């Protein structure tokens, strides 16, 4: 693996750089992002820099600028500090910079930046550190320490800078700015269309040689700006320390009185600032430890530290970007950048939900509740397209919004006509993806409460959509689904996409089961849902349709056609487009309409299908399709590599599995400069856990039962991980000799190569892996 | 005089700098602003820089962001060029920069920037040049020439960059982007509230060693961005030249079909780009010469070039910032920056209009027509305040908008309560200022057409407002005006401000004359205006009020009280606040409420009154008030210095007059870094002409007659200037011996020290000045 950041053999929680490279700033801003799911900020420097992307977001606070689709507004900045030494503004592009180091501690979320700045024969040492609290979701704390070998004058301007925007689209209306008690700087603002109110507070504490000073800030206000200014003369070797406490609240916050927000948020900051930086960091670190690292424990023993760094980084970013509020979901880029406008896609269900379902089921439940709240929007979308039931949006923002995919993309620069973005109209598989993730959640957790309150309804409503979506082909007496985009987005307007048709039928099959189950077991619920969804009539449709839904079958060579047209298209050599250091490399050679006519795949729909429904395909069919589609796949998506790696593990293709694993780990951490500049690939983070635990760790759901069939990579000595299964904690340990499965809490049952093992409560079972491997 | 830019003894049209100083960038962006009255752009560098203020405006295209008052939107940028040499992005903060020179040619409006950039042992020479055409008001042309002593690769990205805003307030909705004919890059946008449509076009021509190349741009589009990219390998000493042609049109443009704007603007650019850079520059320079330099001719013979540079700079900026469209006016900062939101104030009438009235009366007429169109807004404002007639807005944008002064300023940072901006409510003298300027215009031009169509109506409507504004004091049987702000803005809520009361009475006196005049001479107009303004009733009010309007009279010492309270306030030593290198210096010592209780003046109302109505005050009263108020005036406004200088000239205080003149010339060109950062002081530009021609040149209107009584400064050998008077061109030449007045066209009459001189058509008259001085 090759990363753009340094790692540390002895500390798998470290990522850092030792030189300041202006070309890397956007990428590093993303990689060293700090957040707690509620809010987050890119790792920009405290002082402004050319070409920086200074973003801070609060999850779920969407707003629409006139003529644009809704997006997550970039908020007033609270991390700014502009420093002058002897009236020279600190800038890494002036003077000489030595001993530069910037790094992120993944374990406690602390970002540090240290360097010596040499000007006028003075060596001035700067140590910056900061974190977004995991304990108090509204709190951000930051610190700068300055020392010099000579006397210096230090001036600092720091406060709240609302001169921020989403690439110059401005969502925020300017509100009042004021100072409370001569100490607490406050600014209010409000989104211009969704009218979400925000309040930001900042206070500073200034120390000289660790002694708290009484300096009052000299205030400066500008448009959308309010700053405190400090001016201190320092002797040689004295230490100047400024600690900045800041918090953010919104009118969307739960249990919060929006009218009193201005006052109560100041009280909260008063209370927080009674503690010093270190105390608050420790409180936050304890929550990271308890709520994240313990629950999602994964340990890889290997001479190479990068696999452990990768899984730590993935879990860090998942934690930093996942809101704990059912009205909010995880954006495709989390809250790490403006990319995809903060919208959520199937990325959540297909790539990130397994991690939460198996480690923090309460988070998974929140994320699925978001879809339940989204039924309103899904009904809107179905109606708008002349369908029934719940057609979930391709891109989602506020749950009730429905579809938020931009309708039109850039104009075709030659014809001048704007190009329609088809995903919002015809990339319809997301409705199935949600049901698949939801079934996994219910199987893994046995959460009957969720099933009855939300899960069953989503399944039935989704199947109602699919039923209305089917097209009857009288000539062949079958139901088809034509004119869609499958997960392979290279192919627009295809008919009978294997993935879409298969999962649509599966949804209807599930709905039939659910219908019968609740009718039998829960008549009250049945009556309720029948009222809501006109179930009896809908059930009739399902029964009529289900066995006639056309699903492509393996051909003579065992290959399942991706769609009606795919196999008849031209075959070309795809290998030169499989280079991992270019985005959309293939588009340098062909345009979309040419690509549409070739057997070239962005991500292989059929292989995804096989991964998700592994028990429904024979090994021979799996291998045939692997051999057919993998060479034709460019992996020009951050989504496919992890799926292919897991499938390769399943098929015993250890080298391929590991190669794909490494490529996937490099999605963001790798050396490609442009790739993470606009934000992180959250699905790839989910994918790292999936490859590690589901692929190499072999942990899967097999017909509702727990299956553990590890495929330990050659250069790993052991792999340990922990999951939640039906309310129990299951600890799994794999090395070259043994698979040990321990149950904490109730006992559990698992399958391993066809055999069922019972693990008693608070006990463990060992299975010889070395033998298994040669069977 | 001390300027922040270099001047050239031999070329009074040159301002430039020879070193690149990051602290100066905003100030130089303003000083080297380029415009043609229709559009204009700050002198930012082609490549982005930290802390730059990249502004381009089209006059009068106001828009309001939600919760904010209307302002001039910062538009998509058309001057950008990002260059890479051997893949190193050009930045003046990397590598070594030598032979740096940036300068503006005031004569033809061309901005040039040259330097050597030394990277990797290669010396790369850059020559940038650009201009906003004075011939085609929609056209901007720019050029970069690159040569190197070694082989280099040159990459250029250039196009239209809509990622601009007003300090992050975004007015523009993103529109279509496209390429026409593989060459013409186009972007549309539209203001979000006022729905003014814009179209921007760019094309490039690329030359190697002067040979036109056929390179097609590789297009890149981003949010609000569309760029062409060029990539050329150059041999040592070969010359790379890229010429950028750009134009801008709006749906406000006259004689323009907004529906066809997209196509016709491309046709216009096609046509323009048939000519090369030099040809277009020459065409533009010819218009500068004919329309500006010849008409406003002023020549100062002196060993010091700075006075000539100052008057050239002032006239350059006035020309670059004055729209030729009666729906638009000159902003207090023109279109040179975001300061004052592009709004127009009394600055236009009191400080800039004399220049236009006497050199380009057609422009003056446009500017006064703007106020006529503004009657609708002025009625709105009067109604809102329970007055009658036309109360002109303190700050004006679209004529019909009425008042656009922000209602609330920043919050008081201690109490947290927002502070009311009182000027929009009680700084009411602007209604008089408009009438004063209008009378001067009518006297100087004899424009009867204007008088009958607009001028008389404005006077009557303004007087109708003043009549409704007067407050009857029964005890003393007088009419008062209480609770106002005069031009001295240090004093809020004063009663019977001398300037306000005097000019209000004067307005009513003028209106009475106008009433009688039109009733007698123009019954049709009388009937019309009587219908509109209910004149008969209003006239009755005027007659009842006019002789009872209280106007402060000179006291025993000859001093006229600024207002009822002023003379009883505490007297302090103001000298330490008179330093010209600080803005609002006095506020570092006192707050507004303290200043309100002291005899300290921002600009002296009474002296302004004496300047405007010189024939109404005796020399003794003038001198008494000068001696009383000048020492109490901080000149913490760009407006007062020129008035005081002229008055000092009148009073024979030659040294003081010249000192104030120099300080006024330094308003923008001086060394104070912050002063012009947000835009130029347009009134100070008008002031430079006023001091030169009205002060030293002694050209004035005396009871409707032309008076010429020069006061040539000691270090000036001669002063020549040209004005328009009643349709004739009058050329005035003054040296230490003679004043020569020449009439081109009809003959003219002028007064000099009580004596009337007749100048026959196309002839001249000489008056001995040396004798006069000793009389």
UniProtKB/TrEMBL annotation, chains A, B:
<feature type="active site" description="Proton donor">
    <location>
        <position position="489"/>
    </location>
</feature>
<feature type="binding site">
    <location>
        <begin position="602"/>
        <end position="603"/>
    </location>
    <ligand>
        <name>substrate</name>
    </ligand>
</feature>
<dbReference type="Pfam" id="PF03632">
    <property type="entry name" value="Glyco_hydro_65m"/>
</dbReference>
<comment type="similarity">
    <text>Belongs to the glycosyl hydrolase 65 family.</text>
</comment>
<dbReference type="GO" id="GO:0004553">
    <property type="term" value="F:hydrolase activity, hydrolyzing O-glycosyl compounds"/>
</dbReference>
<feature type="binding site">
    <location>
        <begin position="346"/>
        <end position="347"/>
    </location>
    <ligand>
        <name>substrate</name>
    </ligand>
</feature>
<dbReference type="InterPro" id="IPR011013">
    <property type="entry name" value="Gal_mutarotase_sf_dom"/>
</dbReference>
<feature type="domain" description="Glycoside hydrolase family 65 C-terminal">
    <location>
        <begin position="699"/>
        <end position="759"/>
    </location>
</feature>
<dbReference type="InterPro" id="IPR005195">
    <property type="entry name" value="Glyco_hydro_65_M"/>
</dbReference>
<dbReference type="InterPro" id="IPR037018">
    <property type="entry name" value="GH65_N"/>
</dbReference>
<protein>
    <recommendedName>
        <fullName>Trehalase</fullName>
    </recommendedName>
</protein>
<feature type="domain" description="Glycoside hydrolase family 65 N-terminal">
    <location>
        <begin position="18"/>
        <end position="251"/>
    </location>
</feature>
<dbReference type="Pfam" id="PF03636">
    <property type="entry name" value="Glyco_hydro_65N"/>
</dbReference>
<dbReference type="InterPro" id="IPR005194">
    <property type="entry name" value="Glyco_hydro_65_C"/>
</dbReference>
<keyword id="KW-0328">Glycosyltransferase</keyword>
<dbReference type="InterPro" id="IPR005196">
    <property type="entry name" value="Glyco_hydro_65_N"/>
</dbReference>
<dbReference type="GO" id="GO:0005975">
    <property type="term" value="P:carbohydrate metabolic process"/>
</dbReference>
<keyword id="KW-0808">Transferase</keyword>
<dbReference type="InterPro" id="IPR012341">
    <property type="entry name" value="6hp_glycosidase-like_sf"/>
</dbReference>
<dbReference type="InterPro" id="IPR017045">
    <property type="entry name" value="Malt_Pase/Glycosyl_Hdrlase"/>
</dbReference>
<dbReference type="GO" id="GO:0016757">
    <property type="term" value="F:glycosyltransferase activity"/>
</dbReference>
<dbReference type="Pfam" id="PF03633">
    <property type="entry name" value="Glyco_hydro_65C"/>
</dbReference>
<dbReference type="GO" id="GO:0030246">
    <property type="term" value="F:carbohydrate binding"/>
</dbReference>
<dbReference type="InterPro" id="IPR008928">
    <property type="entry name" value="6-hairpin_glycosidase_sf"/>
</dbReference>
<feature type="domain" description="Glycoside hydrolase family 65 central catalytic">
    <location>
        <begin position="314"/>
        <end position="690"/>
    </location>
</feature>
């Amino acid at each position: 693996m090759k990363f753009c950041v340094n790692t540390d053999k002895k500390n798998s929680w470290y990522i850092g750089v030792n030189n300041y490279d202006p070309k890397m700033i956007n990428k590093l801003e993303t990689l060293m992002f700090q957040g707690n799911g509620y809010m987050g900020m890119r790792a920009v420097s405290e002082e402004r820099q050319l070409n920086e992307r200074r973003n801070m977001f609060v999850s779920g606070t969407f707003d629409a600028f006139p003529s644009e689709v809704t997006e997550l507004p970039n908020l007033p900045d609270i991390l700014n500090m502009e420093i002058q030494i002897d009236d020279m503004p600190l800038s890494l592009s002036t003077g000489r910079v030595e001993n530069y180091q910037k790094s992120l501690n993944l374990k406690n979320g602390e970002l540090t930046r240290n360097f010596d700045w040499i000007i006028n024969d003075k060596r001035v040492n700067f140590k910056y550190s900061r974190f977004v609290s995991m304990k108090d979701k509204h709190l951000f704390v930051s610190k700068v320490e300055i020392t010099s070998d000579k006397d210096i004058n230090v001036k600092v301007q720091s406060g709240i800078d609302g001169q921020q925007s989403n690439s110059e689209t401005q969502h925020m209306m300017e509100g009042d700015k004021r100072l409370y008690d001569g100490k607490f700087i406050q600014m209010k603002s409000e989104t211009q269309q969704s009218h979400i109110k925000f309040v930001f507070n900042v206070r500073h504490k200034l120390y000289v040689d660790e002694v708290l000073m009484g300096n009052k800030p000299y205030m400066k206000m500008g448009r959308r700006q309010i700053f405190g200014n400090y001016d201190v003369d320092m002797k040689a070797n004295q230490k100047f320390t400024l600690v900045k406490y800041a918090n953010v609240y919104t009118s969307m916050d739960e249990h919060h009185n929006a009218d009193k927000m201005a006052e109560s948020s100041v009280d909260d900051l008063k209370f927080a600032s009674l503690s010093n930086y270190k105390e608050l960091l420790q409180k936050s670190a304890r929550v990271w430890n308890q709520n994240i690292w313990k629950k999602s424990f994964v340990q890889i023993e290997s001479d190479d530290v990068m696999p452990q760094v990768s899984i730590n980084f993935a879990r860090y970013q998942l934690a930093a970007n996942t809101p704990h509020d059912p009205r909010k979901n995880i954006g495709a880029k989390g809250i790490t950048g403006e990319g995809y406008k903060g919208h959520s896609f199937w990325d959540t269900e297909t790539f990130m939900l397994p991690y939460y379902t198996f480690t923090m089921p309460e988070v998974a439940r929140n994320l699925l509740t978001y879809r339940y709240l989204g039924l309103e929007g899904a009904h809107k979308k179905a109606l708008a397209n002349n369908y029934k039931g719940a057609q979930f949006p391709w891109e989602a923002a506020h749950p009730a919004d429905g579809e938020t995919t931009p309708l039109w993309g850039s104009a075709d620069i030659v014809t001048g006509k704007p190009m329609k973005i088809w995903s919002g109209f015809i990339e319809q598989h997301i409705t199935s993806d949600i049901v698949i993730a939801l079934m996994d959640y219910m199987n893994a957790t046995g959460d009957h409460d969720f099933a009855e309150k939300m899960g069953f309804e989503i399944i039935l409503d989704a199947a109602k959509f699919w039923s209305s979506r089917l097209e009857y082909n009288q000539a062949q007496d079958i139901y088809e689904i034509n004119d869609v985009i499958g997960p392979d987005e290279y192919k627009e307007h295809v008919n009978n996409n294997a993935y879409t048709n298969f999962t649509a039928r599966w949804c209807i099959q599930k709905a039939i089961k659910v219908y019968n189950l609740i009718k039998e077991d829960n008549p009250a619920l049945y009556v309720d849902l029948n009222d809501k969804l006109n179930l009896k009539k809908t059930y009739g449709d399902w029964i009529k349709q289900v066995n006639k839904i056309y699903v492509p079958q393996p051909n003579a060579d065992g290959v399942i056609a991706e769609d009606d047209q795919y196999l008849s298209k031209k075959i070309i050599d795809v290998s030169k487009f499989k280079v991992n250091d270019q985005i959309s490399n293939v588009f340098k050679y062909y345009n979309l309409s040419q690509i549409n006519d070739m057997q070239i795949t962005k991500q292989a729909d059929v292989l995804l299908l096989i991964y998700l429904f592994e028990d429904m395909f024979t090994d021979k069919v799996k291998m045939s399709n692997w051999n057919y589609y993998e060479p034709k796949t460019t992996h020009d998506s951050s989504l496919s590599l992890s799926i292919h790696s897991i499938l390769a593990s399943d098929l015993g293709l250890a080298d391929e599995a590991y190669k794909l694993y490494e490529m996937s780990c490099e999605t963001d951490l790798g050396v490609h400069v442009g790739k993470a500049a606009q934000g992180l690939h959250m699905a790839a983070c989910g994918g790292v856990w999936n490859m590690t635990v589901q692929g190499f760790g072999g942990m899967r759901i097999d017909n509702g039962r727990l299956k553990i069939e590890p495929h330990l990579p050659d250069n790993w000595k052991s792999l340990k991980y922990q999951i939640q299964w039906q309310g129990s904690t299951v600890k799994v340990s794999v090395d070259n000799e043994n698979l040990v499965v321990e149950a904490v809490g109730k006992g559990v049952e698992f399958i391993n190569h066809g055999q069922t093992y019972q693990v008693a409560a608070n006990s463990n079972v060992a299975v010889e892996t070395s033998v298994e491997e040669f069977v």
